[in-house]
């Protein structure tokens, strides 16, 4: 299973989503084993749910709260994103770790809540430049993955996104991606047993149609979590084409 997931972050209005879907759906030829997903801002979920109805394009949320309901002003529950059409949720994106105090402690109940709701949690992990320069990359990733046995996810995807490669145009080298993805695979099998061998591991960080084919050839890379390039439907189409080649 390969996945190409568009993380729109805090971009696009309804008219942009409409134009994007018009371009995407006019040319998209689904390929067996390649999943296309879009994680838009919450207000665009109903728009995309309507526009993508009847297509295999899956909707992701960019985050959701661990509690099922209650007095959490400004938050959105797993049930609500599912009700809006999502099948999956990004959790622990580095921007949420950086700006919204997301930590392993807040992510553990979110993974449990996503699974309880029947949603696929896509846990995002990655080191900062300072951590890489200090040779701490694998320790950081080990710590970020260590919540998995307790979370005991029924389904799971991982996105490795080195923070220094996000939105910078500075993509990790093939050697760096190969080292980290092999490490993540080993950790997943240690932490989750045989199920860990099946978890898709995506790469994210300045993915474009120009570098994606090379990245997809790296062992244990099952797709891309894409920011900037995913805002443009023709680039997203090209990424899907590369994943299906
Ligand atoms: P860019 O593709 O813009 O570097 O963003 C990556 C990302 O953060 C996807 O979640």
List the defining traits of the structure above.
8-stranded parallel β-barrel; alpha/beta; TIM Barrel; about 40% helix; about 240 residues; binds 1,3-dihydroxyacetonephosphate; globular
Q: What order do the helices and strands come in, and which of them pair?
A:
Layout: E1 2-7, H1 14-27, E2 34-39, H2 45-51, E3 58-61, H3 78-83, E4 86-91, H4 94-99, H5 104-116, E5 120-125, H6 129-133, H7 137-145, H8 148-151, E6 157-160, H9 174-192, E7 201-204, H10 212-216, E8 223-226, H11 233-244
Parallel strand pairs: 1-2, 1-8, 2-3, 3-4, 4-5, 5-6, 6-7, 7-8
The structure holds 1,3-dihydroxyacetonephosphate.
1,3-dihydroxyacetonephosphate binds at residues 7, 93, 161, 166-167, 204-207, 225-229.
CATH level-4 homologous superfamily:
Aldolase class I
> Could you say which overall geometry the principal axes of the C-alpha atoms support?
globular
Bound molecules: 1,3-dihydroxyacetonephosphate
Strand content: 15-25%
Number of domains: 1
CATH class: Alpha Beta
Number of strands: 8
Number of helices: 11
State the distance separating the first and last CA atoms: 13 Å
Q: What structural class do helix, strand and pairing data support? A: alpha/beta
Q: How much helicity do the residues have?
A: 40-55%
- Biggest β-sheet, characterized? 8 strands, parallel, barrel
The gyration radius over C-alpha positions equals 17 Å
């Amino acid at each position: 299973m390969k996945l190409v997931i568009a993380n729109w972050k805090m971009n696009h209005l309804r008219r942009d989503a409409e134009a994007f879907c018009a371009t995407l759906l006019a040319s998209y030829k689904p390929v067996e084993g390649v999943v296309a997903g879009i994680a838009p801002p919450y207000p665009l979920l109903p728009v995309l749910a309507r526009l993508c109805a009847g297509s295999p394009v899956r909707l992701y949320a960019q985050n959701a709260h661990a509690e099922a309901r209650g007095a959490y002003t400004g938050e959105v529950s797993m049930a609500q994103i599912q009700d809006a059409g999502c099948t999956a949720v990004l959790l622990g994106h580095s921007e949420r770790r950086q700006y919204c105090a997301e930590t392993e402690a807040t992510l553990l109940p979110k993974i449990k809540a996503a699974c309880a709701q029947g949603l696929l949690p896509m846990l995002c992990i990655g080191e900062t430049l300072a951590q890489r320069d200090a040779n701490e990359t694998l320790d950081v990733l080990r710590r970020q993955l260590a919540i998995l046995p307790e979370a005991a996810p029924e389904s799971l995807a991982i996105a490795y996104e080195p923070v220094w490669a996000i939105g910078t145009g500075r993509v990790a080298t093939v050697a760096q991606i190969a080292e980290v993805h092999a490490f993540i695979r080993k950790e997943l099998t240690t932490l989750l047993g045989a199920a860990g061998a099946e978890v898709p591991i995506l790469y994210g960080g300045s993915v474009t149609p120009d570098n994606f084919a090379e990245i997809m050839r790296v062992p244990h890379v099952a797709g891309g979590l894409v920011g900037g390039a995913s805002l443009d439907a023709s680039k997203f189409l090209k990424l899907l084409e590369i994943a299906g080649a």
